[in-house]
Design brief:
305 residues, two-stranded antiparallel ribbon, 13 helices, 2 strands
């Protein structure tokens, strides 16, 4: 029964990066051209403000700076560095560099959560990175030092955000949507001045653009991040991190289905490797009294997060 619950939690958590994998199609087909940071800002800030207005709860005490740190790591700095990396590198190379973040989660988890590093976990990380490489890399891929550094920094932000969210949890009495709203609002506020200074606002906005921004804000941010943070609260940090491989997998599949892009045999092998990595990372149960959490402790079978 517990194994089924863990599998269900993994499947639900993987929906978040799968939704994020649809961002490329939505951006190219529905949004104004050459406005990536604007898209990131409108993806985060409106959803965060709506959740704050609904929840009507602000951080207190230590949670002021914790919410700031998590909002910057999980959303603000991560989005910005990701777009910088994508600007200097071919999309496939940028995605591959960011895909090293499960390895960083493995190391940070050992340091901050006292998790043991197991060979099967390392194998899952390596298999996932190889799968992403087969999915996204093109023969003409090239490297740019600034792009590589930005990609590694983005991976470090995402890994740190996952591990710190797991370590700190969320304050008593604060619901999941409110907790999500804090981080989306912080991330959006960090990105807003960058958007105005670096890109500015488009001269006109169509109904198609509005639909694209609405999708990114409601589905890509509000719902997806709520699912993501729920997963972090219920699953080991590394398992959550590895479900992130669903993002390039989804992007590849949608590119084939929606944009008519070719799907090569190597990409099919890569997709199989990504799925195998997620399965390999599934936590093994120990005993019958509870599930093993990402910090090495057990949750009672009937506990609710």
């Amino acid at each position: 029964m517990k194994g089924h619950r863990v599998t269900a939690d993994m499947a639900l958590t993987a929906l978040a990066p799968a939704v994020w994998g649809s961002t490329y199609v939505v951006t190219t087909e529905l949004l104004p051209p050459d406005r990536p940071v604007l898209a990131a800002t409108l993806r985060a800030l409106p959803a965060g403000l709506v959740l704050l207005a609904v929840g009507r709860v602000l951080p207190r005490g230590v949670w002021w700076w914790r919410a700031l740190v998590l909002g910057v790591l999980n959303i603000g700095a991560f989005f910005y560095l990701l777009f910088v990396s994508a600007y200097f590198l071919p999309g496939g190379v940028a995605a591959l560099i960011v895909a090293v973040q499960p390895l960083l989660v493995l190391l940070l988890g050992a340091m901050l959560l006292k998790d043991r590093i197991r060979l099967v976990q390392v194998a899952a990380c390596v298999l996932g990175v190889l799968g992403v490489a087969l999915l996204v890399l093109k023969p003409q891929a090239s490297l740019n030092p600034e792009g590589v550094l930005a990609g590694l920094a983005a991976a470090a932000c995402m890994a740190s955000g996952i591990v710190l969210t797991k370590r700190w949890g969320r304050p008593d009495g604060v619901g999941l949507l409110t907790f999500t709203g804090w981080q989306l609002a912080v991330g959006g506020l960090v990105l807003a001045p960058v958007t105005l200074l670096a890109e500015g606002l488009p001269g006109s906005v169509t109904l198609t653009n509005v639909a694209g921004f609405a999708y990114l804000g409601v589905i890509g941010a509000l719902l997806a991040y709520a699912i993501w943070f729920r997963g972090i609260s219920r699953l080991p940090a590394l398992v959550v991190s590895i479900t992130g491989f669903a993002s390039p997998l989804t992007a590849t599949v949608l590119g084939y289905l929606v944009l008519g892009q070719a799907l090569t045999p190597l990409q099919l092998v890569g997709a199989a490797a990504v799925v195998a990595a997620v399965v390999l990372a599934q936590p093994r149960q120990r005993g019958v009294e509870g599930t093993v959490t990402g910090s090495g402790t057990r949750e009672p079978a009937g506990s609710a997060v």
